[in-house]
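Reviewers of the previous submission asked for a worked example of the structure-prediction workflow described in the proposal, so we include one complete record here. The input consisted solely of the amino acid sequence. No template or homolog information was supplied to the procedure at any stage.
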Amino acid sequence: MKKALTIALAAALASGGMMAQAYEQGDWVLRVGATTVDPDTDSDDINLPGGVVAKADIDDDTQLGIIPMYMITNDFGVELLTATPFEHDITADVNGTDLSVDAGTTKHLPPTLMVQWYPRGGKQGWQPYLGFGVNYTVFFDEDVDNQLIETLGALTDGAVDDADLDLDDSFGLAGQVGVDIPFAENWAFNASIWYIDIETTAEITAKSGGAEAAKVKFDVDVDPWVYNIGIAYKF
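From that input alone, the workflow returned the following structure tokens.
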């Protein structure tokens, strides 16, 4: 995704002067594209039965990004990052080994409100921008993978036969850089990158015969880079 973003941005910059497009106070811009959340995961140690210690890792996912923006003045706009729900696989990587256990999955929505500065606001041509704002991430539909349940069962001589996963919602800051390159009247190519501070507390509840057998809590810094490649339309 990073390589594709770089190539597409370079191509757009090379041809972006063909069409004129100014962003001015009162304009609405709708950006739609492929949005990838690529976590830079760091977790506390996960202390499993039998003295086994692991760390969590979260993979990336791409969804449809729907990103409206309103120009407050010629130079400043407000943008809201929204998307269809992201779904991520979670693994537990055992410390000091190459063993990685499929731990579960989660879905999340990361609405992010940005205040953006457009240095070329009011001028025709390509429109770079910088943004700073806040994010609120909602986690839901957390599921534990059977491989983790089987691993917990093996570590407890069969005592554990089920487990639940819960992730706390997160509130944090976000930064952004992006550009719109016009290619037709009111239409532009968009490429943008966010860095979002997402921190959550995970809780795994091991069960035996339907009753709680043990509980493990640990903090996870998700802190993803978020990439969008798409188109923008100015109203």
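The first strand starts at residue 28 and ends at 38. We consider this example representative of the routine output the project will generate in years two and three.
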